[in-house]
Amino acid sequence: MALLRHLIMLRPVNHVHLDFHTSEQIDDIGKDFDALEFINTLKTIDVDSVTTFAKCHHGNLYYYTDLPEQHPFLEKNLLLEQYQITQANNIQMPVYISVGFDERQAYEHPEWIAIDTSGRQIKEFGDQPFDSGWHWLCLNNGYQQKIVEVINDVIQRIGAVDGFFFDIVTQPECCCPNCKKAMLAAGMDPTAASERYRFARQVEANFKELVYQTIRSQLPQATVFFNGLVWQHLTELSIPNYTHLEVESLASGIWGYEHYPLLIKYLQNGPLDTIAMTARFHKSWADFGGYKNPAALEYEVVRSILSGSTISIGDQLHPNGKLDNKAYELMAAPFTLVKKYWQTTRTSRDVCDIAIYLDNRYEDSNLFSAAVAGAAKIMQESHLLYDIIDASADLSNYKLVIFPDHIHADENLAAKIAAYKAVGGKILASYQSLNESTHLLPLADIKPSNFEQDYVDISATHYICYQAGMLASPALGADCQHPIWEPYFNRSYRHFSSHFQTPEKAANGYFDWLADDASVYLAHAYFSLYYRNGNHIYKECVQQAVRQLITPTLAVVGLPTTAALGLRQAAQAEACIITLTNYVPLKKGDVYTIEDIPVLHDVQISFNDRTIRGVDVVDAQTQATFDGDQLQLDNIHGHALVTVFFNS
Ligand SMILES: [Zn+2]
Q1: How far apart are the first and last CA of the chain?
Q2: How many whole angstroms from 113 Cα to the centroid of ligand 1?
Q3: What pLDDT, on a 0 to 100 scale, did the predictor assign at position 359?
Q4: C-alpha 179 to ligand 1 mean position (Å)
Q5: Are 10-93+244-346 and 555-646 in the same CATH fold?
Q6: In the prediction, which pLDDT does 126 show?
Q7: Predicted complex: ipTM over 0.95
Q8: Residue 148 main-chain phi, psi, to 5 deg
Q9: H helices within 217-267, ranges in order?
Q10: Which long-range contacts (CB under 8 A, 24 or more apart) does 449-452 make?
């Protein structure tokens, strides 16, 4: 055990990901790189690990080599100098190799470029021949060996590097001649999208296995990570080829502020440690001269460390090899917080009352449906403790399992839910979820509505539902509430009334809310509806169902909707950790960012009769007092990290 703790302490915590995609039309590459200046900048802000570049998206190599892809204007043996100085200073250095994008190989081997279903080359950032952007390379060809050649060359010329970061490892659903031929040989139908998706995942998995074995046979301790669009769908095939996960999620970029919290809730149940990756840029990668607001960077870093991840902050090295001092000044304060907070969070685990069930079998790079994202949003805004799970989870770890909107129960899932209910588990299902298994819900029969929209009568107010609910007949003895009203007609060119949806005409005899002691069924797709529209009443319906079914571990007063509350079990049995963030993203043009850090006062959290013995405020500003089972928090500057000790 002592040895294990020692190893955990050695795990790098503060990472920098140093991009270096540099055109071969720029000269003097690395001319001003100064190894001492480089390492001093990193050491000053307490960096433990820096990812540096062997091969970039342009296909250029940044070390002296006999391979023809060395950058034509490389002035220094950059990667080797970076390796030697980081090794000498006990900073880890994984090496970056671009896979899916390689402009040099795209021009030398146009037959390796992935082809879409219309026969066009697949490109990122524009699909026209004269758009500037990256061609996407197919992995089902000789390009795999080119990657292996670069890995071997790096190990031979640079040394026993600490790890490898492979980027853009996403095989498109490619229609190139190689892929069509290989699919036919495997008995697959290249014209079927689902078959192409399945084949692409297999090509990816084979590539990862080849690369992993290439590295493992030479460097048994090296870390290996493959970044890509669909790595979240980790299968049994590919998990053994990862040593950890790096969750790329730049809140001000295409990922947005909602991406990381969803993904980490799902990934925290897996076997691998996570590194949360953002960047110092105002917008997204390669935003030279664009600096993230300090409050925005603080939020992304703090929410990551409070969720049990370590942190990677991205930057891009200037072609001349000099680090941008402003960027490292910006990273200094967040990295200090990370080192301080990691001592508290590293051995803790998330405590969750409620599980949101996710069906990860969909053949879609977007793992999270609007229903799952909407459920998570409602849970977070309601300050309920939630998790996101899939079919592999043990339901008995949760007081309540939510099946949002579209979860179809096969025989295995239905049996699992029945067993869970038999030992006291509670379920909340909505809309089409579990419709095949009405015996699990207080339903006798169910069918779809003929209307596109309808209304729900709650306390004599008729609320619009922008997507009509199911027509559910209750089981004997079910509690039925909230009658459904139908409109005069569906809106069409033949009959419409006013600007928008048609007003309600009459109740149709069905109810939105059907409940018994162990389950609530809501006839509307409230989770997707809330995600897409935000009507407060949708959230209230879900909150009412949760309140009816369970007593949450925490009762909270005084937190705004924007605050995210978490509870983590500390290493000591009689202690837990309250995590809280409250930062408010603002839209500026096309960019979301954060400028100010609001201060919260008078937040009360009670622990349902667990008597508090003491508190330890880990962050620098929150003030905490307690009385019995009540914790009072004041002066919360954006976030709080408080360990609470209970009487046994
Ligand atoms: Zn292909």
Answers
A1: 25
A2: 7
A3: 87
A4: 4
A5: no
A6: 82
A7: yes
A8: -60, -40
A9: 259-267
A10: 449/486, 450/490, 451/486, 451/487, 451/490, 452/490, 452/491
pLDDT in tens, 413-469: 999 999 999 999 999 999 999 999 999 999 999 999 999 999 999 999 999 999 999
25 Cα–ligand 1 center, Å: 29
Domain spans of the chain?
A: 10-93+244-346, 354-552, 555-646
Burial class of residue 596 in the structure, from the number of CB atoms within 10 Å of its CB (0-12 exposed, 13-18 middle, 19+ buried): exposed
CATH of domain 10-93+244-346: 3.20.20.80
Length of the chain: 648
Pairing mode of beta strands 471-474, 479-487: unpaired
**Per-residue pLDDT at 192 exceeds 50:** yes
Exposure of 414 by Cβ count < 10 A (0-12 exposed, 13-18 middle, 19+ buried)? middle
Mean pLDDT of 278-289: 98
The residue type of 570 is: A
CA of 70 to the centre of ligand 1 (A): 26
What kind of fold does domain 555-646 have according to CATH? Immunoglobulin-like (2.60.40)
Greatest alpha-carbon pair distance for the chain in Å reads 81
CA 487 to ligand 1 center in whole angstroms: 50
DSSP state of 114: -
Task: Return the CA Rg of the chain.
Answer: 27
What is the 142 CA–ligand 1 centroid distance (Å)? Answer: 11
Share of the chain above pLDDT 70, in %: 96
The CATH code of domain 354-552 reads 3.40.50.880
Mean per-residue pLDDT for 315-322?
98
How far apart (Å, rounded) are the C-alpha atoms in residues 205 and 189? Answer: 19
Q: How remote is the CA of residue 240 from the centroid of ligand 1, in Å?
A: 25
pLDDT (average), residues 166-188: 97
Ligand 1 centroid from CA 190, angstroms? 11
CA of 114 to the centre of ligand 1 (A): 5
Question: Please, which pLDDT band fits residue 5 given cuts at 50, 70 and 90?
Answer: very low
Distance between Cα 542 and ligand 1 center (Å): 46
Decide if 177 contacts 190 (C-beta within 8 A).
no
Cβ(524)–Cβ(467) below 8 Å: yes
Averaged pLDDT score across all residues of the chain: 95
- Using the mean position of ligand 1's atoms as its centre, give its distance from the Cα of residue 531 in Å: 36
Cα of 633 from ligand 1 centre, angstroms: 57
Identity of the amino acid at 527: F
Question: 137: CA distance to ligand 1 center in Å?
Answer: 8
CA of 363 from ligand 1 middle (Å) equals 18
Say how many Å lie between the CA of residue 51 and the centre of ligand 1: 29
Q: Is 169 helix (H, G, I), strand (E, B) or coil?
A: coil
What separation in Å is there between the alpha carbon of 139 and the centre of ligand 1?
A: 7
Point out which residues pair with 593 in neighbouring strands.
586
- The predicted pLDDT at position 10 comes to 53
Ligand 1 centre from 136 Cα, in Å? 10
Q: How far is the CA of 517 from the centre of ligand 1 (A)?
A: 54
